[in-house]
Amino acid sequence: MNEHLKVLRSLTPCFYIKRGDQASIIGGVIEFIKELQQVLQSLESKKQRKSLSPGPSPTTPNSLHLPAKPNHSPIGFETVGEVGACCNSPLADVEARISGSNVLLKIVCRRIPGQILKIIAVLEKYSFEVLHLNISSMEDTVLYSFVIKIGLECQLSLEELAVEVQQSFFSEPVFLNEI
């Protein structure tokens, strides 16, 4: 067991391991692996996005117009099994899943100033409470991972939540003094 712990400790950056005991080493390795998984998801999404966009010209939010129904828009929507939904567009990939009594919301997009405020405003508008937020970025791509609590007044399905968050990428910017 000690040999395995030595190997794990040597493979994990020192700032993930706070003490030398077994629990700290294992906990640090788990945190490091979670971070690596998020970076991998971000890179996979970035690779997918690059393969889908043929031209180097960026799409600006002002040039896209969304009709009321997502089936006829540039947003791709799909239900993921019985416990989740995805909503993708050229600007962002949004995934919502149930985890116990909470919702896990993952958004991969290009870095857009003020976008996190718009996402949180959408969540609060529909009675969701942000319990945890993790932000990972690599170059110009950002992964927002939310754990959100469903409020008593919330009437949205996972599919509707994914669409509402996706549409926040196409709306006007939110400024701090408006919140």
UniProtKB/TrEMBL annotation:
For this UniProt entry, which segments traverse the membrane?
Answer: none
Q: Organism's domain of life?
A: Eukaryota
Span of the signal peptide: none
UniProt region (Disordered), positions on chain: 47-68
Which subcellular locations apply to this protein? Nucleus
**Pfam families with a match to the protein in the record:** bHLH-TF_ACT-like_plant
SUPFAM superfamilies named in the record: HLH, helix-loop-helix DNA-binding domain
The UniProt keywords, alphabetically, are:
DNA-binding, Nucleus, Transcription, Transcription regulation
Q: Where does the BHLH domain lie?
A: 1-36
Q: Quote the PANTHER family the UniProt record gives.
A: TRANSCRIPTION FACTOR FAMA, TRANSCRIPTION FACTOR MUTE
Name of protein: BHLH domain-containing protein
**Organism listed in the record:** Hibiscus sabdariffa
